[in-house]
Amino acid sequence: MNWEQAIAEYINYLKLERGSSKATISSYTYDLNRLKKALISNGVDRPTLTQLENLRASIGSLSIDLSARSLARLVSSMKGFFSYLTAEKYLEVNPSEQIEAPKLSKKIPVFLTKNEVQEFLSTIDLSHPQGSRNLAIFEMLYACGLRVSEILQLRLSDLFLSEGFIRVIGKGQKTRLVPIGTYSIRRLEGYLENRASEYQPQPLYEDVLFLNRRGKSLTRAMIFTLTKQIVEKTRIKKEISPHTFRHCFATHLLENGADLRAIQLMLGHESITTTEIYLHSSVEKLRDTIEKLHPRSDF
Question: Are residues 121 and 164 in the same domain?
């Protein structure tokens, strides 16, 4: 088995059995091809010949040009790849087992205040032909805490608006139900009223919720471009992306007393430790609580 065959088989496994997203597939493919070149330059012509010392030498050379975060992702891709080859009996021993990814400090996410979110949303021009669609997209990113990939995958058949829920397909094709409030439902309905006539869905796209002007699915790049265009019209000086609204969703819920476990479920996080990063926003609130309620608060 050569490198191309091994990588193709593993990527197929990720697609068909793991249900990995397009973004994940793209990242793994890029990382493994990069690793392949480094190992070949170290004399490893086939993946089944890989030894621990080969991996260490290759990672050492690659780390010169990579950030800690990029290196951690590459190591994760590598470990998944060689674990698969071992499980499929192409290798007797997993050569990546003893390699650890660099420790990453948890980066506190950028988020907007409630007033900044409102300023962003109110800046969207509803007189523009795509105005109602754009407002509905950002309302749902904020109101439901969705990833960009999740909002692009939403279907009309995923909407249960009379019950106040939407069905979301997240990472690994895992499905979850997320509540949606009355205000956001009204914004969504404002788009749905004119969706068929304004966007004229093309064959195979009839059930896709958010459409472009050609009646097909929007792209990630388009959502990022919209975010940039809208924020430039506001007084907001923070560097934000569509994912910022997911951070705002979690942060504002936590600030208002929501349970961390409930936020975890709505965000679709596998581990609550991922959700704990949003505790950063509540430091001042926690201090206020202690000052008001604790008998030893006079510090």
Answer: yes
In a domain, 108, yes or no: no
Are residues 125 and 79 part of one domain? no
Residue given tokens 């007393």 in the structure block: 257
Q: Give the span between the Cα atoms of 100 and 122, in whole angstroms.
A: 47
Three-state DSSP at 126 gives: coil
At residue 179's C-alpha, the angle toward residues 175 and 185, to 5°, is 115
Burial class (CB in 10 A: 0-12, 13-18, 19+), 284: exposed
In terms of domains, do 277 and 133 share one?
A: yes
Closest CA to 27 of 95, 72, 73, 60: 73
Q: Cα–Cα distance between 57 and 40 in angstroms, integer?
A: 11
C-beta of residue 52 within 8 angstroms of C-beta of residue 98: yes
Could you list the active site residues? 147, 171, 243, 246, 269, 278
Domain range for 40 is 3-87
**Residue 205 near residue 215, CB atoms below 8 Å:** yes
| Distance (Å, whole) CA 40 – CA 46 | 8
Asked if residue 76 and residue 119 are part of one domain, the reply reads: no
Contact 183, 136 (CB under 8 A): no
pLDDT tens digits, 10-47: 999 998 888 888 888 999 999 999 999 999 998 999 99
pLDDT in tens, 208-247: 999 999 999 999 999 999 999 999 999 999 999 999 999 9
DSSP string, 211-236: B-TTSSB--HHHHHHHHHHHHTTSS-
